[in-house]
Amino acid sequence: MSTETLPALDEGLADVRPTARAPYRRLLGGATIALFAVLIPMALLWAPMDAKQGNPQRIFYIHVPAAWIGFLAFFVVFVGSIGVLRTGKRRWDDIASSSAEIGTIFTTAVLITGPLWGRPVWGVYWTWDPRLTSYLLLWLIYVSYLVLRGYVPEPSRRARYSAVLGIVGFLDVPIVYLSTRWWRSEHPTQFVFERGGLPTAMLITLLIGIATFTVFYAYLMTVRVRTGRMQEALDEEVFA
Amino acid sequence: MNGWGYVVAAYVGSALLYGTYLTWLLRKERRLERSTGDLQPR
């Protein structure tokens, strides 16, 4: 398929001309710092020690929020990818590619913190458990997404190819989430919000963690989307 | 490594990952701001 058969991806440079810094960006940055300043002492000092797992359970307060952001980021990739294929607007590709990059960072953090939690609790850093395996596959899918973007120089083609991968790759997210219910898994199941689940102090700390990571993700998106648009504008200037 | 060792490794490792990415992103943004200085923001 030649490039000419693909519909135009955007309205040209006007669509990608760099935006000013978002007015709420400073607020998001300040809120991220403030929330981390609250979260860390709560997670390490205030939250009670788990009776069964001991102190390693405190990794939970950064592991679960990072996993949540991984899912959220890849949902945004999914929505952005649909936007690319439906409208051909480059701004959807900006959002999807930015969210994929940030999501990959957070899933990498999950793959670092998980084994460090698993070793003292399970006795091993890694096991080919359904949850862990499907999560590693999710990480590989989005690394592939980023690699694919690096190998396709033509913007229209790059956006469409990666959009297809962004949509197909998202199918792994519900598999990861439900893997502990569908198959026998050593990974903890979704007991957090169930009656008799997490003690109140642990639940509050977890919710602060989720809020912290969500605001951090929003801040990173404002920076990454703007950076991507500036890079595209520069590329168009250079190759025009 | 005792229990706290794993906790410290996880928190420090995460901080290094996020911090490195954020630093790289902000430096890239600053470099692009200089390069695209002749383009007017929308």
How are the secondary structure elements laid out?
The complex is a heterodimer of chains A (240) and B (42).
Chain A: H1 13-16, H2 25-46, H3 60-87, H4 90-122, H5 130-151, H6 155-170, H7 172-182, H8 200-239
Helix pairs in contact in A: 2-8, 3-4, 3-6, 3-8, 4-5, 4-6, 4-8, 5-6, 5-7
Chain B: H1 3-35
Could you explain the architecture of this structure?
The complex is a heterodimer of chains A (240) and B (42). Chain A starts with 12 loop residues before the first helix and ends with a helix. By secondary structure, chain A is mainly α. Chain A has one domain (22-48, 59-239). Helices cover 73% and strands 0% of the residues of chain A. Chain B is rod-shaped, with a radius of gyration of 18 Å. The A-B interface holds A 14, 17-20, 40, 44, 54-56, 58-59, 62-63, 66, 105, 108-109, 112-113, 116-117, 119-120, 216, 220, 223-224, 226-227, 230-231, 233-234, 237 and B 1, 3-4, 6-7, 9-11, 13-14, 17-18, 21-22, 25-26, 28-29, 32-33, 35-36, 39-42.
How would you sum up this structure in a few lines?
The complex is a heterodimer of chains A (240) and B (42). Chain A is mainly α and 240 residues long.
Count the beta strands of chain A: 0
Instruction: Count interface residues per chain for the largest interface.
Output: A-B, 35 and 26 residues
Q: Name the average pLDDT of chain A.
A: 85
Biggest beta-sheet profile of chain B: none
Specify the number of helices of chain B.
1
Shape of chain B: rod-shaped
The residue fraction in helices of chain B comes out at over 70%
Distance between the termini of chain A: 24 Å
Approximate helicity band of chain A: over 70%
What's the number of domains of chain A?
Answer: 1
The separation of the N and C termini of chain B measures 54 Å
Query: Strand-residue fraction of chain A?
Result: under 5%
What low-confidence regions of chain B span 5 or more consecutive residues with pLDDT below 50?
none
Radius of gyration of chain A using CA atoms only: 20 Å
- The residue ranges of chain A in which pLDDT falls below 50 over 5 or more consecutive positions are 1-7, 11-16
Sheet/helix structural class of chain A: mainly alpha
Class from secondary-structure proportions of chain B: mainly alpha
Q: Mean pLDDT of chain B, nearest integer?
A: 86
Radius of gyration from the alpha-carbon trace of chain B, in angstroms: 18 Å
